[in-house]
Amino acid sequence: MTDPAQHHETFTIERTYPNCVEHVWAAWSVAEKKKGWFGDGLSESEFRVGGTEKNEFSNDMGTHTNETRYFEIKEGERIVYAYSMAMNGAVHTVSLTTVAFADESGGTRLTYTEQMCVIPPSDGAQGRTHGWNALLDSLGNYLNEDMRTKKT
After folding, report:
1. CATH superfamily of the 7-151 domain
2. Mean pLDDT value across the chain
3. pTM for the full predicted model
4. DSSP string of 78-119, one letter each residue
């Protein structure tokens, strides 16, 4: 059986964090902070328009590689980037992503939207949604720990 042609999927995840926009923004824009929630696989991080980022991790499925390029950064408001995901060297998704930040009663409403081209074989939006939910949970844990540390 051959794989079907590529197809396109879109998903959005919204989260509200009790931290102000400046703190949530810093967790995305400062490499050392992003590594705190994104993981040690974040080997390159150049947060600027035209900048790149590389992340690699392994699990029982193989080695996963993410390569990113930033296209728009509007401080405290929006990040637009494109990235590819590969497993064992084979690209299986290419995405355009927008991360929007908005004040929510002193906290931050984060809206993550990803438009992707799925190249079979791939777990597509289901896999990306699962992965980004885990990463955004990790971001929440990182921000909570950061708040506790600053209060002591």
Report:
1. START domain (3.30.530.20)
2. 93
3. 0.91
4. EEEEEEEEEETTEEEEEEEEEEEEEEETTEEEEEEEEEEEE-
